[in-house]
Amino acid sequence: MYQDVILDHYKHPQHRGLREPFATQVSHVNPVCGDEVTLRVTLSNDGATIADVSYDGQGCSISQAATSVLTQQVIGQTVPEALETVDAFSQMVSSRGTVQGDEDVLGDGVAFAGVAKYPARVKCALLGWMAFKDALAQAITANALAEGGEHVEEVSDE
């Protein structure tokens, strides 16, 4: 059953195709296998909710299907809910099979629980999810700066 979910998301990806407008865009590559994803995130006007996530990429069925599942799961969630979802997925696929995942939190993401038993595929499954986490952090910072909120300083190693 879970294999069918992964194949369905690979063959019929959700939210694939880069859309505008967007707050931030990131590109991540898995140098080991060549999987690539470019992902865009848009927050609601108040910065509290994930308004849109779109992506484009190429790679194995696991990386592309996992990114499709990500978009389906986090659009419409609050920022804290989306971060909880990302953390739950990351814990599940990094657990070596000890964490099955909560379908209420992960939705179709629970289909990737078996990936945890194949360490070489964990990075494939996490590619889009880590790109989302990176893009979300950038969107939060950009939103805070646009509102004249927090001042973000560059940290020097000098």
UniProtKB/TrEMBL annotation:
One of its GO terms (biological process) is iron-sulfur cluster assembly. It holds the Pfam family NifU_N. It comes from the Bacteria. One of its GO terms (molecular function) is iron-sulfur cluster binding. InterPro entries: NIF_FeS_clus_asmbl_NifU_N (IPR002871). Residues 1-124 form the NIF system FeS cluster assembly NifU N-terminal domain. This is NifU-like protein. The gene is nifU.
